[in-house]
Amino acid sequence: MMKKKSCSPCFGLIGEGTRIKIIQQLRKNPQNVSEISANFSLTQPTISYHLKLLEKRGAVCSKKRGREIYYFLNKRYPCKKCSLFEIPLKP
Fold first, then answer.
1. What's the pLDDT tens digit per position in 30-77?
2. Which of 15, 82, 89 is nearest to 54 (CA)?
3. Which of 40, 41, 65, 75 is 20 to 30 A distant from 34 in Cα terms?
């Protein structure tokens, strides 16, 4: 009998509308916190909180360029079966 894959950790990541919007933005290209927060009515610390959560769970990676930290989607995201980055997401 095949065991069904549970993606509750993945759905927990996208269960908050802000994180869905961040993932949508990062699908286009890597961005820093300022670029991401320009599309929200939230403070940069709030956006940073969501980015750190996404990074901690492995969905997002970061790379420092000069003084800026750029965030991008992790192409090696651990949960491949749920296709988190391929499915259309709506906030």
1. 999 999 999 999 999 999 999 999 999 888 999 999 999 999 998 877
2. 15
3. 75
Nearest to 56 by CA among 21, 91, 12: 12
Six-digit token string for 39: 């599309």
Quick one: which of 65, 60, 25, 29 has its CA closest to 42? 25
Q: What is the CATH number of the domain that holds 37?
A: 1.10.10.10
Higher pLDDT, 24 or 48: 48
Answer yes or no: is 44 within a domain.
yes
Cα 9 from chain centroid (whole Å): 13
Per the listing, tokens 């909180």 go with 49
- Can you read off the two tokens belonging to residue 26? 């990062």
